[in-house]
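FORM 7B: Structural annotation worksheet

SECTION A. Query
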Amino acid sequence: MSETRHRERGRPRQFDTDVALDNAMRVFREKGYHGATISDLSEAMQLTAGSIYKAFQDKRGLFLQVFTRYTSLRNKALAERLSQQPDGRACIAELLCFYLESATSVEGRRGCLVVGSAIELKQFDSELAALVHAALTRNLRAILQLIEQGQQDGSINAQHDANALSHVLLCLVLGMRVAGKAQDLPARDTLLKTALRLLD
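SECTION B. Predicted structure
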């Protein structure tokens, strides 16, 4: 009996880590860090609580890996779309479309892990809060670079304060994710057209 138990304890984890993280990601996005229980995560990941603890140590360790994967996947997807655009203005338009799509329908209801965590974790865990802040800072820097690119190529009004405009656009896209969690957004074309006037 003891030999059997020893073999069971020594077995390698037989699951796809990326699939498990993606399933946990959905739970954290929908319920938040505090609202997601180990039972919720276990059911979504199709793993026992013991397997989760063995693989990720605890819920916090799991969240750290989920957050890293979430931001990596989204940054990669956005970068691929932006790389196909001809100028800075078109890049901003594509970025806005990306966030609009993310804030629409089922995807929108699930919510943004970065935005939700920024609100929830600020006073709870300084390390996790710093991780979220770093993600927001990267987003702001990326928007600023696109604005500066557009001002250099002539597709965005060079008279604008690029730094101030980048903050406005960040607030806009974050607001989309918050609104998309609660309700349907205005018509995409109308919202996009209105937002792009900020670049004129």
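SECTION C. Observations
Residues 1-12 have pLDDT under 50 and may be disordered. The chain has eleven helices and no strands.

SECTION D. Sign-off
Analyst initials: ____
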